[in-house]
Design goal:
It contains 13 helices and 14 strands. By secondary structure, it is α/β, with parallel strands linked by helices. GO terms for molecular function: metal ion binding; S-adenosylmethionine-homocysteine S-methyltransferase activity.
């Protein structure tokens, strides 16, 4: 699906476009693409309940106008990409919440439709990324932060493929495969993407310079390099301090675009379900990441429109 075309201009908040933009891949050929921030945590800050198993998918189902408004806030701040509220959506996850499979399929479709509506209203080459979260997100027990599910690559491939097919058929510009914690699940994702014709980015979650599973970043980025469907790879849902070394691992492992959208710098206490610590100041870190040639940059948990605006301003500064 094509995004709106744009002509020579600088939008005042982010990248300068010098040619017609027809896809997410085209955006990656210019200055860093400005991603959005943490949708679920923005909704929470606006008074919406995201504490249940479905997280932001509950808001998508019951209050879609709130999702539309959140996308609009990020676009107004300077984001070029709306990431859909589908991270937590799966048939099994909905079944565990007492909801029919058909509701999960409808939610996947609706997530793309709402984001597309927001992108069309924002105009100027804005695009839609359909979020595909890890298997651990469905478990809703924090296991996406270690990836030890006890499942084979084949089993995870079978679990991911129907959701990938459904989301891609709904018409996003790119699939945002995100917060993947292990090489096993990354391999399953690559297999699930094979032959779909989709465009995707593959983003992993890291700690101490490695995948959350303890496996090598070089190995997972080399795996991403082997997939024709994957157009960018990098990290998300991690501490800002992890980004520089991860971007270097991307640079050494693949010629594909790099992507980074860390958390605010606060840490999630999964046991007590609360955030601790202080947010990291973005300006110096973001400028350093831009100097590495990062292809797309944004935020994950606890990164709101204000921080996305600061990222967009950093991207827009003449160099």
């Amino acid at each position: 699906m094509s995004s709106p075309s744009v002509t020579n201009r600088r939008d005042g908040r982010g990248a300068s476009y010098t040619a017609e933009v027809t896809s997410f891949s085209d955006l990656l050929t210019g200055p860093p693409v400005v991603l959005d921030g943490g949708l679920g945590t923005l909704l929470e800050s606006r008074g919406h309940d995201v504490s249940g198993r479905l997280w932001s998918a509950r808001v998508l189902r019951d209050e879609p106008e709130a999702i539309l408004g959140a996308h609009a806030e990020f676009f107004a701040a300077g984001a070029h990409v709306a990431t859909t509220a589908s991270y937590q959506v799966s048939r099994e996850g909905f079944a565990r919440a007492g909801l029919p499979e058909a509701d999960a399929d409808a939610a996947l479709d609706a997530s793309v439709r709402v984001a597309r509506d927001a992108a069309d209203r924002a105009g100027r080459g804005r695009v839609v990324a359909a979020s595909v979260g890890p298997y651990g997100a469905m478990l809703a027990d924090g296991s996406e932060y270690h990836g030890d599910y006890g499942l084979s690559v084949a089993a995870l491939t079978d679990w991911h493929r129907p959701r990938i097919d459904r989301l891609w058929a709904a018409g996003p510009d790119v699939l945002a495969i995100e917060t993947i914690p292990s090489l096993t699940e990354a391999e399953a994702i690559v297999r699930a993407l094979d032959g779909t014709g989709a465009l995707a980015w593959l983003s992993v979650t890291v700690a101490d310079g490695a995948l959350r599973s303890g496996e090598s970043l070089a190995d997972v980025f080399a795996l991403a390099d082997s997939s024709p469907e994957v157009v960018a790879t990098g990290v998300n849902c991690c501490a800002p301090s992890e980004v520089a070394s991860a971007l270097e691992a991307v640079r050494c492992s693949t010629r594909k675009a790099s992507i980074a959208y860390p958390n605010s710098g606060e840490e999630w206490d999964a046991l007590n379900r609360r955030w601790t610590g202080d947010p990291a100041p973005p300006d110096g870190l973001v400028s350093a990441w831009i100097r590495t040639g990062v292809g797309a940059i944004g935020g994950c948990c606890r990164v709101g429109p204000e921080q996305v605006g600061a990222i967009a301003a950093a991207v827009a500064r003449p160099r």
